[in-house]
Specification:
The chain is an alpha/beta fold. Helix content is 40%, strand content 17%.
């Protein structure tokens, strides 16, 4: 017997009609109607019977259905209360599924991992992320737990390209640096806009992230590193020097410290942030962290 997946156009349309559901633009909802792409996501994340999975925004359960079939246990966060009944009725037979009615950005993911996956051998995030909050969700998850080893995330193609960008490219920015800090990142697959309902205005991609055992560089103060690095990109057209002075202040002592630090790590202050490597950002942050004269501007 052939399984008729939720992700087929006929079953998606039937579920939307049955529950009288329209996609909420405010929640970035687009329902995917191509089972093979979901199968590809699971393959990219190497989901198997030993893999526990976190999903964000299960919607009507198209991806969730694959995850509960092939994975060990699934914890799905759904914000839209209209969809809870759909998930219960369509996927309620799966004992390995837990749906939390919660905004992922307000969830204590680390505590939930301890509660739902106390003896997890392998933990992955597999999700079709809402376009409008892709980045906040991603960094919320990255900072929440180092137990998550793999991420296979459907997102806007342009965002995925920014996340894997190399120094010197137009799309390289603070997101690219942060991802490099935590992960190895590749685009596993391009996904055309035609497989979604409603059809978005842009194509998507499956971004595959493999978390490193340790961050790629050593920093003495992680919060300071990220604040300095983001501040360096604050005004892309400005030099690194101008952005650092905007961030730390323009007092004589501060200026002297910045000049000294840049000289120590052999970084030309006239460069722009988009030309600096992760290693250069880390080296600069560590020198500035050790300087008692350096404080963030109020």
């Amino acid at each position: 017997m052939t399984h008729k997946w939720i992700a087929t156009p006929s079953r998606t349309n039937a579920i939307l009609k049955k529950y009288q559901i329209d996609a909420k633009k405010s929640l970035g909802q687009n329902f995917l109607m191509e089972p093979q792409i979901l199968q590809d996501m699971l393959s990219a994340a190497e989901v198997d019977q030993q893999t526990d999975v976190i999903e964000i925004g299960p919607g009507i359960g198209a991806l969730t259905e694959f995850l509960v079939e092939y994975g060990r246990r699934v914890l799905a966060y759904e914000l839209d209360d209209r969809l809870l009944a759909v998930l219960v009725e369509e996927l309620g037979q799966y004992e390995n599924l837990t749906v939390k009615h919660q905004d992922i950005l307000k969830a204590d993911v680390s505590a939930d991992i301890q509660a739902y996956f106390p003896e997890s051998e392998r933990l992955a995030v597999v999700a079709n992320l809402p376009y409008y909050i892709t980045t906040p969700i991603l960094f919320h998850l990255l900072s929440a737990s180092s137990m998550i080893s793999t991420y296979a995330l459907m997102m806007q193609l342009e965002v995925a390209q920014r996340l894997i960008a190399e120094p010197g490219s137009k799309t390289y920015g603070s997101l690219s640096v942060a991802i490099q800090y935590y992960c190895d990142a590749t685009i596993a697959q391009h996904v055309p806009r035609t497989v979604f309902k409603p059809r978005p205005n842009v194509d998507s991609a499956i971004l595959l992230l493999k978390r490193l055992d340790h961050p790629r560089v050593e920093v003495d103060d992680e919060d300071f590193f990220f604040t300095m690095m983001r501040g360096s990109f604050q005004h892309r057209r400005k030099t690194l020097w101008n952005n650092l002075r905007n961030l730390f202040g323009k007092e004589a002592d501060t200026t002297a410290s910045l000049e000294d630090a840049l000289m120590q790590v052999a970084i030309d202050p006239k460069r722009r942030a988009e030309t600096l490597t992760l290693e250069e950002f880390a080296a600069l942050a560590n020198v500035l962290t050790a300087d008692e004269r350096i404080h963030l501007s109020e």
